[in-house]
Amino acid sequence: MKKAEGDEFVEMMLDLFRKKMPENKGELVSGIEKNDRSVLIQKSHLVAGSLGTFGFIHGSNLASKAEELAHKGNSDNYLEAEQELVKYIDKALYEIDC
What we know:
Blueprint: H1 7-34, H2 37-53, H3 57-72, H4 75-97
């Protein structure tokens, strides 16, 4: 069966998501451990876009909220939000492979 136009692009994007999202998750975990707000802001922003692109709206919103809280600088709030985001990334990676 011939693939529909665009299928190869979609598969390429899914492969990129599968490759990059664990890397981003690892950098978020490292940022949490080091309490590195600049890494958390950058990676949360990136993850928000990636999750949103694949229809993970709740996860995209979580990432945006984590980014916003990290900008504000209250470590109790943003670290908790980042930890919730890390858990959500696992869920998204599982769902993308189902």
